[in-house]
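Fold this: ornithine carbamoyltransferase
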Amino acid sequence: MSAPVQTARSAARGAARGNLRHTTQGSNRKYPMNSLRQGPPPHLLTLADISTDQITSLLQSAAAMKYVSKHFHARSLISRLDRRTVAMIFNKRSTRTRVASEASIEALGGHPMFLGKDDIQLGVNETLEDTAKVVGSMVDGIMARVDGHHEIETLAKNSSVPVINALSDLYHPTQILADLLTLLETYDPLPTPEINFSEGIHTSVLNYYRSALDPVKTLTGKKLALVGDTNNITNELLVTLPRFGMTFSVASPDGYDKVDERVWSKITEAQTDKLITLTNSPAEALKDADVVVTDTWISMGQEAEKVARLEAFKGYQITNQMVQDAGAKQDWKFMHCLPRKQEEVNDEVFYGERSLAFPQAENRKWTIMAVFDALIGQFKMP
């Protein structure tokens, strides 16, 4: 081999080693690439599966990322998804969850791979088990929006990478994380954090929120009333809010008021049933409420039930008069996870000063970003 060729190849090998050192030890990635993948992958299928301390850590991280992104530049965030790919397997259509997820992955330096129902045949020509094993071997995380909750459970059981529930028929954890962040911003608006630039912008802001943001202290004693269907949103609220000391009342029409046994077992396990009221009367649920919530009356896949559901939910539309007559708190707030239909809540409430619906929607991005950062970026539940 001639000297020039040998020298060139030696230089190339040296450059490759240098690039590897930069990739694993550079300023953007302060940990070895593979050191985090120890033990089984962390999953988020429902907030019922994790502690209030872990939920709090996710909320603190979300608040920090929101502040840093809005007041500095996304490059100030720690790019924990650098060179990582997240598969987004969506069997159902989505606006907020999809946009929030793709934007979050990009902001953290990763690559979102969207796989819609026409791109991947989840459980059709290939078993869920096989799909989880194959996709999990090629990407760094999976965000899945499925039909039955058993589908997300099967994906998680067979995946070698973290699986995050983007919605199932039973639970919707990323939505309720956004709801919690919105409630904290509403009832405990924190002063501007002081930045210690020697720590780094992101780290300094995160340390501030870790010391200042206390969901249990802020939410204990507050009452949230949901007037509408007993669906995946209701279920996730049922297994989450009472653990933070909130009282939760649900008003649903007869026949639409049954809580799934799997959900109720989580409530029993957490011993929070005394903070929960189930009723068919909107007025009973709304009395003394700090926050009023409704959701779609016709979920995806229930379109054939539209006529029957609209008839059953007559009298459940949220209006100022209804809430006032029921005796809610004078400064009550309104939330809706969207998309909204006018029969669920009138324009006066939805677009009025009490409505938190649009800040609530934006917070999908920051809370999903926190989940990706922890589970996929750090390969752990905080």
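The chain has two domains: 47-174+364-377, 177-182+214-360. The first strand starts at residue 85 and ends at 90.
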